[in-house]
Amino acid sequence: MAQRTAPRHRVVIVGAGFGGLFAAKALRRADVDITLINGTAYHLFQPLLYQVATGILSEGEIAPPIREILKRQENVDVKLGWVTDVDVAAKKVLVSAPGIDYSVEYDTLIVGAGASQSYFGNDQFADHAPGMKSIDDALELRARIFGAFELADLHEDPAERERWMTFVVVGAGPTGVEMAGQIAELAHRNLPGQYKHIDPRQARVILIDAVDAVLKTFGDRLSTRALRQLHLLGVEVELETKVVGVDATGIDVDTPRGRERIASMTKMWAAGVAAPPLSRKLAAATGVKTDRAGRILVEPDCTLPGHPEIFAVGDMMALDNLPGVAQVAIQSGRHAADQIKRRLAGRETGRKFTYFDKGSMATISRFHAVASIGKVHVSGFIGWLMWLAVHLLYLVGFKNRVTAVLHWFVSFLGRGRAERVATFQQAYARAAVREYGDPFERRRVTAGPDAGK
User: Fold this and answer.
1) Cβ(266)–Cβ(144) under 8 Å?
2) Listed residue (82, 51, 114) closest to 438, CA to CA
3) Which of 249, 251, 371, 395 makes the best surface tag, with the fewest CB within 10 Å?
4) 9-115+275-344: CATH homologous superfamily?
5) Sign of the CA dihedral with 49 first, then 50, 55, and 57 last
């Protein structure tokens, strides 16, 4: 048998979110060598982060190891690290991991590094109002939410108790609505009877947004139904309300009534996303433009203008006002993989990416969700069943699906929450990183897996 002499086409994929992972899987039979680089060793199912934060699911159920997912795919090499820059002329990415910097050369590059939380120029808000973009965020919020009830139980001063039992969620999109609904259910259904000195049902859950409707992209009909269900849960909804200040003990807002102060020890941010720093670096390196959120303005086929060897997918790309949802990432990742296979086969490339909208869904409470699929708009129990089926379908791994279903039964049929454990380390991790530095900074890592902690 003749030996292969020419090296195979090298595909580097940045990010193992929906876009990057599905691109890699779509190339499993292609004659390519894939290097998949991700800042964590797991693939994160972001749509269920709020359930980790509210004690329904464990973090492992929504974050299976990348190596386990791709263990049967021989043409992929998984590497840990953050891509810090791209040398376009040399066709290589520069990567940093704890204690080591390295580079990887490519023939084709797919960049799907996801999105970060946007505080609209007020990044200092993050210290007191964590976002919902990572496992770290979800675990910190879990510690803060359950810890708030514990600390409220210790205080005798009614004002101090009220401050600890007031939860503010900023952002009335799907994440914010789901988060507010679950905290309300926790307070009214799961925790009553477990505390001697407080009644969790007296907790206030306040949902804030600058727009004039919850779930505004779902349309007026479903937005109205979602608002009605939130009110039934006891959630206070403040619309056309802008956040102007956030500190340790509360939040300042401009409302139609004027400037107000909400005393609260537990705030969370679910309003706005922005492309990661890599997006602007790549744009500068290639001379392409970005939109206001930092997303790269790509060609119709998801490549960068003047650079057909570089694809941007998912939240990294700006194309036709597509939303930053999982289906856009999945489909654009698959599209990039298809274009690579066509190019290697000598077939026509440059095909326009066409997005097929499979609809939008959001849960409000147990057995109640809203779903918009084309011209079909449903809510209530039927919507919840549709939500359940779709999320089980896209949750990676048979084991994760089984354990998720078991935990959903515990939480939705019973009155318990399977995952209430939270540690001080999780609660104060953000402060520790701020004080001692990012563990991914090489200067702080000396030797061994625990160095620099």
Assistant:
1) yes
2) 82
3) 249
4) FAD/NAD(P)-binding domain (3.50.50.60)
5) negative
The position carrying tokens 């147990």 is 366
Find the helix or strand (DSSP H, E) in which 282 lies. helix 277-286
Catalytic residue among 61, 140, 178, 419: 178
**Kind plus residue range of the DSSP H or E element containing 149:** helix 135-154
Percent of the chain with pLDDT over 70: 92
User: What gap in Å lies between CA 6 and CA 341, rounded to an integer?
Assistant: 17
Return residue ranges of the chain for CATH 3.50.50.100: 123-270
Give the Cα separation of 247 and 330 in Å (integer): 37
Distances (CA, A) of 161 to 152, 205, 251, 266, 275: 5, 14, 17, 12, 38
Write the pLDDT tens digit of every residue in 338-382: 999 999 999 988 889 999 988 889 999 888 999 988 888 899 999
Return residue ranges of the chain for CATH 3.50.50.60: 9-115+275-344
The CATH number of 123-270 is which of 3.10.129.10, 3.20.20.60, 3.50.50.100, 3.40.50.2300? 3.50.50.100
Instruction: Decide if 178 is catalytic.
Output: yes
| Nearest CA-CA partner of 48 in 387, 372, 380, 427 | 387
Beta carbons of 323 and 330 less than 8 angstroms apart: no
* Per-residue pLDDT at 374: 81
Over the stretch 86-127, which tens digit does the pLDDT of each residue have?
999 999 999 999 999 999 999 999 999 999 899 999 999 998
- In sequence order, what are the beta bridge partners of 37? 14, 79
Whole-model pTM?
A: 0.88
345: Cβ–Cβ under 8 A, 6 or more apart, which residues? none
346's tokens: 């000598």
Give Dmax (Cα) for the chain. Answer: 83
